[in-house]
Specification:
six-stranded antiparallel beta sheet, 2 helices, 28% strand, globular
C-alpha cells in the first residue's frame, strides 16, 4: 500500500493536525496520478487490467489551486455510469488536497456557514477525506499511475450518460 501515514491512523480521533496530515497524504497520492502533460489537457483516463476505467477531469486551474473530478466509469446496459464521483481541490502552495464532495450537484456548493455546527462539519470533512485517502491508495495498488493516465477525448458525463446508439 502506498501510504505515508502511520499504520493505525484510522483509529485516532480526528484532530485538525491529523486532518492536515491526511490532506498532505492525499496531495502526494494525487501527484502519483496526475501526468506532467496535465497542463495541456483537461480530461484523462487510465486503463489497468482488472480495474474499471478511471477518469479524471481538471475542472479549474488557478495559480495556486486546481479543482479535479475523479471517478470510475462503468458500462451497464449500454449506458455509462460513474461512481464514486469525487470532487477534489488541490492547494499547490500548501501541498494539501481535500475532497469537497462525492456528489456532482454539491461539487461547487459551499457547505460551511457561521450558523452550522462546526464539529459536525469537521466530522464530515474527516470522513470524506478518509474515504478519498483509502480510495487513492487502492487506485495506486491497482496500478493506476502517471504512466497509465492518458489524455481522453471527452469529459466525464453526468451520473448516467445517454445510451450508446447501435448502428449496424
Amino acid at each position: 500500500m502506498v501510504s505515508f501515514r502511520e499504520r493505525h491512523g484510522l483509529f485516532l480521533r480526528p484532530r485538525l493536525k491529523r486532518l492536515q496530515e491526511m490532506q498532505g497524504e492525499i496531495y502526494r497520492q494525487l501527484l502519483m496520478l496526475i501526468p506532467d502533460h496535465a497542463v495541456h489537457h483537461d480530461s484523462f483516463q487510465s486503463i489497468v487490467p482488472g480495474s474499471p476505467l478511471l477518469r479524471m477531469d481538471i475542472l479549474e486551474r488557478h495559480p495556486y489551486t486546481r479543482f479535479l473530478r475523479l471517478t470510475y466509469q462503468f458500462e451497464k446496459d449500454q449506458q455509462q455510469e460513474i461512481s464514486p464521483d469525487a470532487h477534489i481541490r488541490m492547494y499547490q502552495d500548501a501541498r494539501l488536497a481535500e475532497v469537497t464532495s462525492f456528489d456532482p450537484e454539491q461539487g461547487f456548493k459551499r457547505l460551511a456557514h457561521p450558523w452550522y455546527p462546526h464539529y459536525q462539519l469537521f466530522q464530515r470533512t474527516w470522513r470524506q477525506n478518509l474515504v478519498l485517502d483509502k480510495w487513492l491508495g487502492y487506485l495506486l495498488q491497482q496500478g493506476h499511475s502517471v504512466v497509465t493516465m492518458q489524455p481522453a477525448s471527452d469529459k466525464i458525463g453526468a451520473k448516467q450518460a445517454r445510451p450508446v446508439a447501435v448502428t449496424g
